[in-house]
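User: Some background: our group keeps a shared notebook of sequences we're curious about, and every so often someone picks one and asks for a predicted structure to add to the entry. Today it's my turn. The entry only has the sequence so far, pasted here. Could you supply the structure so I can complete it?
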Amino acid sequence: MKKILFIFLVFSIGLIGVGCRRNEVGIGDDEGIVIADDEEVNKEDGKEDEGLKEGIPSPLSGIYASKGKVSRRPVAVMFDNHPRARWQAGLSEAEVVYEFMVEAPYTRYMGIFLINDPEELGPIRSSRPYFVTTLLEYDPIYVRVGGSEEAKKDIKTLGIADIDGLSSSPSVFYRNTKNGKKKPHNLYTNMNIIRKTQAERGYKLEGNFEGFKFFTEDTEINGFSAKDVTIIYNNENNTQYVYDEAKKNYKRYKDGKLHIDEYYNIPIVAKNIVIQEANTKVVDKEGRLKIDLIGSGNGIYITNGQGQNITWTKNSRNAKTKYYDESGREIKFNSGITWIQVINTKTNLAIK
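Assistant: Of course. Here's the predicted structure to add to the notebook entry:
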């Protein structure tokens, strides 16, 4: 009898342990993106557990989350990438990130957020016309601080749902003085503030945009080896991706240093990388650029250590940029974070 009671006690403790573990990973938590403790392990392995696919897939990343989060309006955030602004907070939570050249020798990021709500975002910086052309594809709330005269005119003319640090109260944007950064490289906000401001200003809550196409399972593409990818913008500016075989994603390096999220203190990673060539020229004495994003061009799609040559088309300023393989089929992405590197047609690449 004692032996039976002992077995029953052990079995009960085991059930309690399992119940606690399920609580930790957020299984059944409808409001939480389904990447929690256990899913982090799966992210590390580069594999998805079918049992963790609760909710519906995000049209930006293919990552599953609650319907309420997936159906809301995206947020596009301008991130400062000046050397004195690094590193950025909340950037690891973006599902799509663009890196564009701005005035030489620098680049700037625009992160597109949907299912995640970073507790800190920044440093926030100004807009350029080609960022506006890109964000029109997502129908987002636009978070920025100022911009070139042309960009500011476009934002107003096009009726973009804008949250500008130059015209918003200190309750929306704040100076972060704890990290040693100085103006203009220390203006921050967070997603809760942005969502609250979105509602207060009467901006619509749901987006109207076309997402990307995704493989139903993690897929190897046929192509050339792309385990070390370096984009050389100029002598002072380069971006590198190094493939992690075990995790099946790419760690990101900026100017030779591991790119980390300042707030979450984790490496910035990518599952998909798109290198998009676009004609680029300097248009004023300040070194501002005109980047041709309407039309077509060449590029490279990279995932799981392989790359393939692609083409891209964008038929109008409001149209979605489409990417096609060499057979003319629209490419599919693997579920995960995508970085889109828009480069000059003359930019040097080293892929091996």
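Suggested note for the entry: The chain has two domains: 68-200, 224-351. The chain has six helices and 23 strands.
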